[in-house]
Amino acid sequence: MADLACNFAGIRSPNPFWVASGPPANSAYQSHRAFEAGWGGLVWKTIGTPIVNVSSRYSALDIGANRMVGFNNIELISDRSIDVNFREIAEVKKRWPHHAVIASLMTETREEWHDLVRRSVDAGADGIELNYGCPHGMCERGMGSAVGQQPEVAERITSWVMEVAKIPVIVKLTPNITDITAAARAARRAGANAISLINTINSITNVNLDTFVPEPMVAGMSSHGGYCGPAVKPIALNMVQSCAADPDVRLPISGIGGIATWRDAAEFIALGSGSVQVCTAIMHHGFRIVDDMIDGLNAYLDGKGMKNVNDLVGKAVGKVTTWEKLDLNYRRVARINHDTCIGCNLCYIACEDGAHQCIDLVSPDAHGIGLGPGRVPYKPVPKVREDDCVGCNLCSLVCPVDACITMVDLPATKSAMSWSEYQQKLARGEIEPIEPHG
Ligand SMILES: Cc1cc2nc3c(=O)[nH]c(=O)nc-3n(C[C@H](O)[C@H](O)[C@H](O)COP(=O)(O)O)c2cc1C
After folding, report:
1. Which domains does the chain have, with CATH numbers?
2. Which residues are catalytic?
3. pTM to 2 decimals?
């Protein structure tokens, strides 16, 4: 069995799966339940001067039968007293000495930051996470994403924290910024030990078309919220990779955003995360989801012959490059398996109306195509004109049947050529312009 033990910037945990700062990490009671279920670490709900929350607080984007594809909240930091939070952190650490407990902090002045950092150390926290990401409520008071969006401010506050921190410090970044690497570099310049990302993304999930009030509704009004859950995973992966690939960042990354399964976690790890954090999926399904995450990651690492999580960290980072370095001569085309095709013709419509018009509807008899499941005799079937197919993937993405349309590599007929090489060769008159397919 692979070793899942994690040493993230000096913070040790039995596995890389941490509960993210949020409602599931609000109290000692929940921390005990999380660790009993198998979570390796937990980032406490952000501690600061206690706030007052509104009712209601959450809304969601459902797609068909899939509930909470995206999740939105207007909840602020902890509404419990600073004393209670630190007392409970100490209690949890006493009972779970080998699990990671990280204190998430947010406050304003240098003195207040020093005080919260010292109290985190005294409570026995294994690390500190600085919340520069909350995009609602706190930012209007100059905290949260108001800090994260100004790298020079984040750098100044982080250096205040580093003046007194005796335990590892993680800077949690906001995705509500044009260039996440600017914020990550500021964390490094200030001497932080690690970064975590992403916090939530500014959002309005829906509008009630009778009352014209978006959800969540508070006395007939709403407010911009923070978006998270499965819908944000691609944005988070993109930002994690950008930070992991930046030579001026070089900090351990705790990946967050839409993680619900071991696969999600493995993708974040492959793109450079040394640990992963989960909030929405726990709010949706409970702490027990970590069971599958542990089993799945173990089986995956074993299958790949990897001895520990570190063997996977960053494996995919170098597989992302800038567009102009991609090979213009590489070609792949769509192939339809007519034995499994159900004849819905979604691929045809998508290609015809929404893409590059390279699927024909043909008579099955004339093309020697047998009858697949659900198909009516003599009804035309989709067939790809491979010479014209641009390999855009759309037909395989819309096809409702698993693996019915696959994308296949065509044998290379020309050597690899990037956009910049193409421009140079064209300028030197060494090649003719490439004609678009189709
Ligand atoms: C209701 C709610 C409350 C949250 N509160 C905090 C918080 O107090 N501090 C913090 O750093 N992040 C907070 N977050 C953000 C999460 O820690 C996490 O960064 C974000 O939700 C993305 O992860 P997910 O897709 O797994 O939920 C909160 C998220 C939700 C949904």
Report:
1. 6-317 (3.20.20.70), 323-427 (3.30.70.20)
2. 134
3. 0.96
